[in-house]
Design brief:
26% of the residues lie in helices and 26% in strands. It is elongated and about 120 Å long. About 5% of the residues have low confidence.
């Protein structure tokens, strides 16, 4: 496949030169780009990747029906999210899991997995013998197909199930799902990666029908909306009008003595159509003599699935379940085999598959197409390249499954019950969600292009800062969007500056006194020390360190050197079980290191340093050890050298000496010209002894010194 040029979109950032800390989101349709069928879309962002759906094209066969999976290193994909069970969205999943290097996790709703298992088992059975399988017709299995029953079973075992609104996190990817209303269990997925939010609609419906609720509308605005464009700019008739056209067309065919074929997939829209037919036949006694058949070997199992997930259907069906099961039809008979069908008189048969590629629906079409009394009602969307799409143009001749050319004289009527949105419903969804960017998928080229133009036209009426970009990529064409990286950190264990302030003002004044900044799974969190153990996978551990060394100089000489070197030297006491010798003198240096001198046997002295591992304590301990070692060689020389680092401490300097030390240290590290006095930020009521700003390479930081009790804190 020739690689189309990438689509460049800058989102959440200026269109000028790239800004620092920008990340690029890439969206690539591997299937379903300017086509309907084999939906599969790859998201890549900040080292994470997600596949959305993996279907098979109903109008193609063998490997040609799959998405372009060979263009991707599937071993790096983190997740596969499957929106619903239809063939064009889910039939490629067993191939992905069993025949490729995919190692990621797979998620779908409970109902989607249950129905997918039934549908794909039927899909394997219905594959024609010439489709890369062993000879033997339907049900022959075959080692040369895309996958077999064993592969399907292994695939289903790997699937993880989610409920609507259940939040799942994996490797920095956070997602949850909403009811999409398209078929039983259909889901929209809301995905968050590194602060960027994406909403994938899959196939969705905004209308309530006889058994399903309409799609939910998320309240959280996404940065990117990946939405279907199946019907482009078309407008649907109302449900009542469509139902009337559907039933009247069927009645007209059977009343003239004809046989009516309704191609439909075994699960999904079939149940909706059966509810309509059963209710219509119940109201029309003159039609009771005409049989209605549901040709499906899965009828009983399908009934159990719909009974199991009745809680996912609308209130009308749930209320009916209290009286009788609405899916136990009074006027619809199950047809296990087409050989059992008596079609000598008028009848109605609903049979799979819905695109007339093979199976019962294709056998009946080939048998009935040549009679003008018969008719076909296409009740779903027909994909390009399928017989269902071909006969909508009412050709004079069609080719049968065995290759013969025969006349087509039967009537063909299309009445859409495919539960996709039209333009007005699609645009209302865009207005409700207000995305920054829209990516169109799942639509034939002409319909998608018309929809893109209409969306641009309508959204140009919005304020300029709220107009979304609209992209309509082909298969393999990258859509690139740039987002500035989120630099915010969540704070855990924050405290209030003033316990007396009102609850309204508290959120404005909350801060963490001290803590640890943790970056994990693309999120940054600042944990207060006391919350680290309970709220994170980390814990604060104090590492006590002790150094002992022989002291060759006198105690007075060391005392002089310590007070000349450090601005904060206090008298200390002996620590229990610290040394076997006799305690002579102790110091607390900079509040971080406890130093003690002990007299040992044979006239030797030992200096013991104790501190908790920390940058300040480590530095002070190293400096103290150096002083002790240098003093052993030349105490008089060090006495004459004067102060080593800072002026002597005074009790009433107000912290001026410490402030001067901080300024000198910053100037030595960053240059005196880059260190200036600073003013407190608005709302910062802290009393600073000094506040300095350091600017280097256009990056700035402030450093302040405050007094807390008898201690100074930076």
């Amino acid at each position: 496949m020739a690689e189309p040029p990438p689509v460049q979109v800058v989102a959440g950032a200026s269109t000028q030169a790239p800004q620092p800390m920008e990340d690029t989101l890439q969206i690539t349709p591997l299937g379903g780009g300017k086509e309907v069928g084999r939906s599969c879309h790859l998201l890549e962002f900040r080292g994470r990747s997600v596949l959305l759906d993996c279907g098979i094209h109903p109008g193609r066969s063998g490997l040609d029906a799959l998405p372009f999976l060979d263009t991707v290193d599937l071993s790096t994909v983190d997740l596969l999210l499957v929106s619903h069970f239809h063939i064009d969205h889910a039939a490629g999943v067993p191939y992905l899991t069993e025949k490729t290097g995919f190692k990621g996790r797979i998620f779908m709703t409970h109902a989607t997995r249950a129905v997918m298992r039934l549908l794909l088992s039927d899909y394997i059975r219905l594959l024609p013998s010439g489709d890369g399988r062993k000879q033997g017709g339907e049900g022959s299995g075959g080692r040369d197909g895309l996958y077999d029953e064993a592969d399907l079973a292994n695939c289903c075992d790997k699937v993880e199930l989610v409920d609507f609104h259940q939040v799942v996190e994996h490797n920095g990817i956070r997602f949850w799902s909403y009811n999409a209303g398209h078929v039983l269990g259909a889901a929209m997925f809301y995905i968050e990666i590194g602060g960027v939010r994406l909403l994938y609609t899959g196939d969705y419906s905004m209308e309530e029908d006889r058994h399903l609720v309409p799609a939910e509308v998320p309240s959280l605005e996404p940065h990117v909306l990946i939405m279907e464009s199946t019907y482009g700019t078309q407008k649907h008739e109302s449900r009542d009008v469509r139902e009337a056209l559907f039933t009247s067309t069927i009645e007209r065919i059977v009343q003239r003595g004809g046989r009516c074929l309704i191609p439909a997939f075994a699960l999904g829209r079939a149940q909706e159509l059966l509810l309509i037919l059963d209710e219509y036949w119940k109201e029309r006694e003159d039609l009771h003599r005409i049989p209605v058949f549901y040709a499906s070997k899965m009828a009983t199992r399908a009934l159990r699935v719909y009974q199991t997930y009745i809680n996912m259907m609308n209130q009308h069906v749930r209320d009916q379940m209290d009286v009788a099961n609405p899916f136990r039809f009074a006027h619809v008979q199950n047809l296990n085999s087409v050989d059992d069908l008596d079609d000598t008189g008028p009848c109605v048969v609903m049979a799979a598959p819905g695109m007339l590629q093979s199976g019962v629906s294709r056998r009946l079409f080939d048998k009935w197409a040549s009679s003008e009394r018969n008719g076909v009602v296409i009740a779903g969307y027909s994909v390009e390249g399928t017989l269902a799409k071909q006969i909508l143009s009412e050709p004079d001749e069609v080719r049968t499954m065995d290759g013969r050319v025969q006349a087509r004289r039967c009537t063909v009527v299309s009445v859409s019950f495919s539960a996709h949105v039209d333009f007005f419903q699609n645009f209302s969804f865009v207005e409700a969600t207000r995305p920054d960017n829209i990516v169109l998928v799942h639509g034939e080229k002409n319909e998608m292009d018309r929809l893109k133009g209409k969306l641009v036209q309508e959204t140009n009426k919005w304020p300029s800062d709220r107009r979304p970009t609209v992209s309509s990529p082909e298969n393999g064409q990258l859509v690139k969007m740039k987002f500035q990286r989120d630099r915010r950190a969540a704070c855990v264990g924050a405290t209030w500056d003033d316990d007396q302030m009102s609850d309204v003002d508290k959120p404005k004044r909350r801060r963490v006194q001290a803590g640890v900044l943790v970056r994990r799974d693309l999120r940054t969190t600042l944990y207060a020390d006391d919350e680290l153990r309970d709220s994170s996978p980390l814990a604060v551990t104090a590492l006590a360190q002790t150094v002992r060394l022989r002291l060759s100089c006198g105690v007075d000489g060391l005392d002089f050197l310590l007070k000349q070197t450090f601005a904060d030297v206090q008298d200390g006491t002996a620590t229990e079980d610290e040394c076997d010798g006799t305690f002579q003198k102790g110091w607390v240096i900079c509040g971080a290191v406890h130093a003690s001198v002990y007299a040992l046997e044979a006239g030797e002295k030992e200096l013991t340093l104790n501190w908790n591992a920390a940058p300040l304590g480590d530095a002070v301990a190293d400096a103290t050890a150096c002083l002790a070692l240098h003093a052993a060689t030349s105490v008089p020389a060090l006495r004459n050298a004067g102060p080593c680092c800072a002026p002597p401490a005074t009790q009433r300097d107000g912290g001026a000496a410490a402030a001067a030390l901080v300024r000198d240290a910053l100037s030595d590290s960053f240059g005196e010209e880059n260190v200036t006095d600073a003013e407190p930020a608005d709302g910062d009521e802290q009393e600073y002894i000094c506040l300095m700003k350091v600017v280097l390479d256009e990056q700035g930081a402030t450093c302040g010194l405050v007094r807390e009790g008898s201690e100074l804190r930076a």
